[in-house]
# Entry
Amino acid sequence: MLSIVLPVFNEEDNLEPLLAEIRQAAPGFGRPWEVVMVDDASTDGSLGVIQRLASAQPEVRYLAFAENRGQSAAFCAGFDAAVGEIIVTLDADGQNDPADIPKLLQLFDAGADMAIGWRLKRRDSFMKRIASRIGNGVRNRLTRETVRDTGCSLKIMRAEMARRLPRFKGMHRFLPTLMKMQGARVEEAPVNHRPRLKGVSKYGTWDRAVAGLYDLFGVRWLQKRSFLYSIREKSD
# Structure
């Protein structure tokens, strides 16, 4: 089963159109699916929209935080609540295209533990594109990665691995690296990226860069200190 996890913060106008697009793409999933919406204490009408969608559509479930905890916390809550063995992550702003999910599922079904989108043509502001390019370059240099676009929220991963990820603020920016620390095979594919049509971005360019740099040193430390092991045998 496929569980699509959507963190939501003040996206009341985007939720219904996005869910309609997910439903339209669903025949290409090749498996049962659900949507888990996690409301991060929205201050607009998002929670009301979510409640209405969940009451009318059996594929939709939701969680609502008591206070704002950020995107990483919302993702983790969705991972814990997901029923499916496969997790898909999307932004709720409509910039990710659900029609790309079947393409990433092909990589997953071919043996990848994680398949991530690569936004070939970004539909963001010039400053946001430049900041993202610099951020990806610095992140890859320090973590010895080759991921083209770790900031793309469209990702597919094994649920049991997602639930074992270390949890901290900003961890969603490092999901491919954190998955590889578990021995995951990670694949990439170009995906569509769309301009935001409704609502406003929740992130400033430079404050996100500062927070990301701080987190980056923590992830580098984790890389150096992490380990894997396998059990040869054990007693009953």
Remarks:
- The mean pLDDT is 86.
